[in-house]
Predict the structure.
Amino acid sequence: MPIELFNTLGSRVEPLTASRDNTLRMYCCGPTVYDYGHIGNFRTFLHVDVLRRTARLNGLALKHVMNITDVDDKIIRNAGAAGMPIADYTAKYEKAFFEDMDALGVERPEIVAHATESIPEMVALVEQLASEDIAYKTEDGSWYFRIAKFPDYGKLSGKDLEGIEDGARVDVDEYEKDAARDFALWKATKPGETSWQTAIGEGRPGWHIECSAMALKHLGPNFDVHAGGEDLTFPHHENEIAQSECATHQPFARHWFHVRFLLVEGKKMSKSEGNFFTLRDLLLKGYRASAIRFLLISVPYRNQMNFTFEGLTESANAIERLRTFVRRLDAAVKNPALPEVANEELLALSIAKRDAFHAALRNDLNTAEARAAVFDMVRAANITLDNGTFGCGNVDAVQKLLNDFDAVFDVLTDRDAAISKAAVAWAQAEGRTDIAAELLTAQSITDEEIDALIAERTDARKRRNFARGDAIRNELLEKGVVIEDGKDGVTWKRK
């Protein structure tokens, strides 16, 4: 069964299919690398990650292109203020972006395309548009797209743009969302700006032409999916469609996938509100990367999400329930006394919940329902483990659902300590002082030191020196390490 996905172009849910070789060809607007990414940015990239993982789970191969905007108005402004070449300025933030993506478990796209490496393709696209009088040159040497030449302008956003004034221009990359103006394809050089000497004059690209050129370069004149945040629908994606379809005379992307905005504690995220958070800010507060990932994809992409710290704590607790169950399951499988016969009720429920999990994801990536299906199974399986009716015949069905769940949600493996440690090291190198005290305490003890203390505790308990054993437990607890005594020995985890 195909994935049914809402298509912004036409505003309806449609089957998502690969038009060629069972390979989903998709383009995602990537970061503009002028600063550290905030959690609103990463919500979009995480839901694109859910889309690609779900597509793979449903048998599709992937050719996913993501651009890196490494030249635009903001970059030029910030690099100039820092007294740095733009290549040096953007390298720092591009590196940080991929570190953050890795921390959140976001898969790398098959192709990462840099705007500054596609200047010839952008120039050729402007030349093609100019040959049909759709691009025109102004007195200062800049080139603009004449939107009156594209009658379908507005078809993605659904805006009524009949009152377009031919020749009215806007030269900034980002502008008022209701402004319909001829937009800059190529900007003439200004003093001190990075520029390229080309057949259409010296200058640098406008923001919108970059994505069209890179999508056409790597995916061809038409492809399956174009993704991004809802803030890009107009004008950025509208402009991409216009310039691409005017140049190729073919439909651009068949399916448009947009992720809704993120609120923080009920308000729009902004620095003036004091609710603007990068991933690194949250890690330094002591929150786990896995909990941030799980929370940001818990609300389906078409719903606006209200990010709260209470929700982040609940997300961490939910992951711990899942990981505890995985440990219980592993212990049960190793138990020679495990009954051979399956608990038939649990077996039927596990199969049904796996079907429900897949159905939820195929239903417009309903991550909330998919997640609920897994917790329903875990709840029922825990009851059978408690009462001794979980059998060998239950393992396969339960494990299949867990495997499918983790193929998309990717939170069962605990990588949090290493990610938090890297965040602390970065913050200390940057001279930041806003590191949570409990995080610093947790970083003060290594895994090897924990193992040594647990071995000492085990020896003390064997010698009936329970006072020393309790003292070690409390010492570890103060450093954020929880000891669990079980039938199969002692295990530990960091809080």
